[in-house]
Amino acid sequence: MDNTDRRLLAILRTDGRASISKLADLLKISRGTVQNRIDRLTADGIIAGFTVRIAAAEDPHAVRTVMLIEITGQKTVSAIKTLRGIPEIRALHTTNGAWDLVAEIQTENLAEFDRVLRHIRALEGVSKSETSLLLTTI
Fold first, then answer.
1. Fewest CB within 10 angstroms: 33, 61, 82, 92, which?
2. Residues 76-108: tens digit of each pLDDT
3. Measured between alpha carbons, how far is 127 from 105 in angstroms, rounded to an integer?
4. How crowded is the C-beta side of 50, counted as CA atoms within 13 Å?
5. How far apart are CA 75 and CA 73, in angstroms?
6. Would the pLDDT of 56 be above 70?
7. Are 75 and 124 within 8 A, CB to CB?
């Protein structure tokens, strides 16, 4: 990944719906080059997918949480791959200290949250977790 790839990803993080033409204009490269870079980043797993993010204020009933996850043994790589495929996980971070991963989770309601929580806790390699509900953004 080079500087142009990093700039492309930064733009897509801000506006995932930006057109190829707009991206090419912002990056000062051709549309074909932008498309090839997006295709390569997607094939390489750098871009895991495209989604819509809704501002918390626009979805006041959403359940937002932070989950701390401990992984046993050599299961970190496979656990991360599985966790990245769970659409309710908005972000996944490695960390230091007692926990191995931090997952930001958002679901439509408590029943969905319970389903996702049980699914994550049942994953091979997940030995322990701690979850905190996010109540108010200040």
1. 61
2. 889 998 998 898 898 999 999 899 999 999 998
3. 18
4. 12
5. 6
6. no
7. yes
CA–CA gap between residue 106 and residue 18 (Å, rounded) = 24
pLDDT at 16: 86
Q: How far apart, in whole angstroms, are the C-alpha atoms of residue 76 and residue 84?
A: 12
- Indicate whether 59 pLDDT > 80: no
Report the candidate in 118, 133, 134, 123 with the shortest Cα–Cα distance to residue 100.
123
> How many CA atoms, within 13 angstroms, populate the side-chain half-sphere of residue 11?
20
Separation CA 104–CA 65 (nearest Å): 6
* Cβ count within 10 A of residue 110: 12
What is the per-residue DSSP string for 39-100?
Answer: HHHHHTTSS--------GGG-TT-EEEEEEEEE-TT-HHHHHHHHHT-TTEEEEEE-STT-S
φ, ψ for residue 27 (rounded to 5)? Answer: -90, -10
